[in-house]
Each structure stands twice: as C-alpha cells, then as structure tokens.
Design a protein that fits this description.
It is built from 16 helices and 15 strands. The chain is α/β, with parallel strands linked by helices. The strands form five sheets. It has a three-stranded mixed sheet with strand order 2-1-15. It has a three-stranded mixed sheet with strand order 3-4-5. A three-stranded mixed sheet has the order 6-7-8, with helices on one face. Helix 8 links the parallel strand 7 and strand 8. The termini are far apart. The relative contact order is 0.19. Bound molecules: N~2~-(3-carboxypropanoyl)-L-arginine. The site of N~2~-(3-carboxypropanoyl)-L-arginine (SUG) has 22 residues, from loops.
C-alpha cells in the first residue's frame, strides 16, 4: 500500500512581512505591515489537523533557526549575537530581514521528491532546492538537506542529493514546479517538471519579473532521481503567467493521481493531448480570469485522495471571497467530475506572503515499509497536535513588524522555542545554535 504524506512546514516564530519576494504580488502588497506569528503557526497546525482528521497521513517539518546569525557573520557582522542584530538593523536592514524570514514554512519549495515507483533504484529520491534566486530563501537549502536526511534516514529506502550548485543558471524552487500524474500514488507515474526559462539556450522569458526556475535545474534533477526519460516531461510556464504574478507553477496548476487541474494560461504549449488517460481540468479565462486565480490562489489548493476513495480540493478561504472562483467552485463537483468536494481553510497569515495551502506542504508518496522507516516523530498524531498548539502558545508573539527583527529578545525567544521543539519532536541538536 502506498500513501501520499503531506509534510507541512511549521511556521517559525519570526513570521513577518518584509516584501522580500520577487514576482510575488502578495508579499509586495503586505510588506512592512504587522504580522501575527502565533496565528500564522496555529493556522498552519489547524490545516495539518484537518488533513489528519480526514484520515490522511500528515508529516511535520520544523522551522529553521532565524534570525540566522551564521549568515550574518558570513556577511561581515561580528561580535555577540545581540550586537550583530543591532548593527545589522542599523546598517543593513534588508540583509537582517533576509536572514530572519520564516520562509522555510513553504515546504513546497523545500525539495523535489520522486517516489520509489518512478526511480530506477526503487528508492525515494530527494533533492533539496537551492532557491538560488533570493538571499532569504537560498539560506534554507543546507538545513533542509540535513533535515530531510534526519527525517528520512534509511539509505536502503531514501536517497538524498545535495542542493544543485547555487547560481542563476541552475536555479531550483523545488516541488512547487513539479507534478506527478499516475493512475494511483503507488504506480509508476509521469513526472512533469515546469520551468520558467532556459538558462543555457535561447528561449522565451518573462519581461517584468525574473523566472525563478530553470530548465537546466529540472533536467539535472530528473537525471539525479534516475527517472525514465519516457515518463519525464518538461513544460515551460507561460512568461505571461509569471509576469501576472504566478511565480511558481503551483500558483496556476495542481495535480493528484490522474487529475491535472490548471489554468488555461499556465503553459506556453497547449497540453490537452499530452497526457492520454488523465483527467485534465482546464479552467478558461472566461471562467476564472488569471488575475483572480492569482489573487485567490485557487490552484494552490491541495488536491488529495481520501483513504476511502474520492478526491477533495482544500482551498484557501480567499476563494470564497472572489466572485469568479466562488462561482467556479460551486459548479466544480458534479457527478462526472473526479473532484468530489471542496473545503475551505484559513491560512490568511501565510497567504499575505503569497503562500497558500499547497505552498505549505511537501508531498512524499511512501509505501508501508518506507513509512515504517521514518523518524519516530515525523508524523502528526492527535496528542502531538495538542503539544504543538501549546508550544505555540508558550513561545510565539502576536505582533511582529520587520523593524522588530533587530530585537535581541526575539532571537532568544526563537532559540528557546526551537530548543523546546527539538525535545517535543525528539530531533536532537539539529540547529546550529544548539551546537555552538
Ligand atoms: O518565495 N514568499 C514566498 C512564498 C512561497 C510560496 N510557495 C509556493 N508557491 N510554493 C516566495 O515568494 C515572502 C517573504 C516576505 O516578503 O517577507 C516570501 O518569501
């Protein structure tokens, strides 16, 4: 039996709105406003519980340590940790913000994952994304790599590849630009890699915002993961969609088993005939304008198969607030549609930074044996959920402005919170501050 497990990133204690993200309209619109880290973390946990309560297996990825003092030291700041924060706030506030983002919560950018049914050596392959395009995100890759090795430890079942070399030509944003189509999670599938530009050959590229993910990155990962070329597809995301604010494929498309739900403007090619035997649900501009799809994050919904059968779409509540997506979703579940119902979930704190339900999770299809080989506390249980909610109440602030990031108290609070979390999750000293 194979299960698709969604591993969600727990929102970190420094969740804030610093307008760091390129081509991400929500991040730009909410920059320099006050966030609520406690609500953000509780919303994320509530989503995980919702999935667990539907009978799905739900995984957990702990936050990264932020502000990231080791990076600030690499950027030339020295002295005590508190002194570094104060100096960085005064001399280089943008660098401090980049080193303080809780952006690792968007686990869809953590890695690309190929399940064992697709790989030549029959192991699950992981490549942590280099996130090369932006400072605040590229500092995630090393810790993500080590964390995945901790949570998926057995080399008999799991193969971990180091992030691709970090440069614009191999810029990789992970599973947000990767889809899988298969009759069921356990069967060999077609892996679809979506790129924004070719870096080493001429081709179309967006004009307004940079394309974050390259063909050359996807092509390397397909090779690393030992995928069959006959079952690997590369699609270019439409430059117009990127310029409209779809900075990842998962802003305009989502797949699950044999269903691909996507916006008509998502790709440069017409993909209608590419995947015979699959259900392609294409949403036309007249049904949902691209701008509404991006505002509502309709396609950043999680499309999942319930244990008893039937597919459900877990949408952000923003989809109920916009007329075109509300009307579309009302008409979506019909007797002939593979999608049987829609649920709405509030992840508003994350949405304000351009992260919907699907951004918050990394999908990993696992057989029973692979599940048994996971780290002991990698999966959510009702008791662990209660512990994590209490943990958030103990440690998280209710208000945070980017100007607060230079507060040495915030660093101490974050360290205390993460120390407590490593005990709850029995992870050992995974953070650098625990080893200094
Ligand atoms: O990389 N936002 C993230 C959102 C990532 C969403 N992920 C997926 N679509 N899978 C980004 O643009 C905003 C941080 C800030 O502005 O404070 C940010 O990094």
């Amino acid at each position: 039996m194979t299960h698709e497990v969604n591993f969600d990133g727990i929102v970190g204690p420094t969740h804030n709105y610093a307008a760091l993200a390129i081509g991400n309209l929500a991040s730009q619109a909410h920059g320099m406003t006050v966030s609520n880290p406690k609500d953000a973390a509780l919303q994320g946990l509530a989503k995980m519980k919702f999935m667990m309560d539907m009978g799905l297996k739900q995984g957990i990825l702990p936050p990264h340590e932020r502000p990231h003092i080791p990076t600030l030291r690499r950027l030339g700041f020295s002295g005590s940790d508190g002194g570094i924060l104060i100096k960085a706030q005064r001399e280089a506030p943008m660098k401090l913000r980049a080193c303080s983002s809780a952006s690792a919560m968007w686990a869809a950018n953590a890695a690309t994952v190929s399940p064992s049914a697709d790989t030549e050596d029959g192991r699950v392959h992981f490549t942590a994304a280099n996130l090369a395009m932006q400072l605040h995100r590229c500092i995630e890759s090393g810790f993500t790599w080590r964390l995945l090795e901790t949570l998926f430890p057995d080399p008999k079942h799991f193969a971990h590849h180091e992030p691709l070399p970090c440069n614009m030509q191999l810029s990789d944003e992970g599973a947000a630009n990767h889809m899988r189509l298969s009759a069921s999670h356990g069967e060999a599938g077609i892996e679809v890699f979506v790129y924004g530009r070719r870096a080493l050959a001429p081709g179309k590229a967006p004009a307004k915002f940079p394309a974050r993910h390259t063909f050359e990155a996807s092509d390397s990962i397909a090779r690393l993961h030992q995928l069959s070329p006959a079952r690997t597809f590369f699609l270019q995301q439409s430059p117009a969609a990127i310029d409209a604010g779809a900075f990842h494929n998962d802003v305009v498309a989502v797949s699950n088993e044999d269903v691909l739900f996507y916006h008509a403007s998502a790709y440069t090619q017409e993909i209608g005939n590419y995947f015979p035997n699959m259900h392609l649900i294409k949403v036309a501009e007249e049904q949902v304008p691209l701008a509404d799809a991006i505002r509502s994050y309709l396609f950043n919904s999680q499309l999942v198969t319930l244990p008893g059968g039937g597919m459900v779409l877990i949408c952000p509540t923003e989809c109920e607030e916009i007329a075109s997506t509300r009307d579309y979703l009302k008409s979506l579940p019909t007797s002939t549609s593979p999608i049987h119902s829609c649920h709405f979930i509030d992840v508003h704190q994350s949405m304000k930074n351009g992260g919907g339900p699907a951004c918050l999770r990394l999908r990993v299809a696992l057989t029973d044996k692979q599940l048994a080989a996971l780290h002991a506390r990698a999966l959510l249980t009702p008791a662990l959920y209660d512990q994590l909610v209490q943990w958030v109440h103990r440690h998280y602030r209710e208000k945070l402005h980017p100007d607060d990031l230079g507060d040495p108290m915030l660093l101490d609070e974050s360290h205390v919170a993460l120390e407590d979390l490593t005990n709850i999750l029995q992870l050992g000293p995974i953070y650098e501050f625990q080893r200094r």
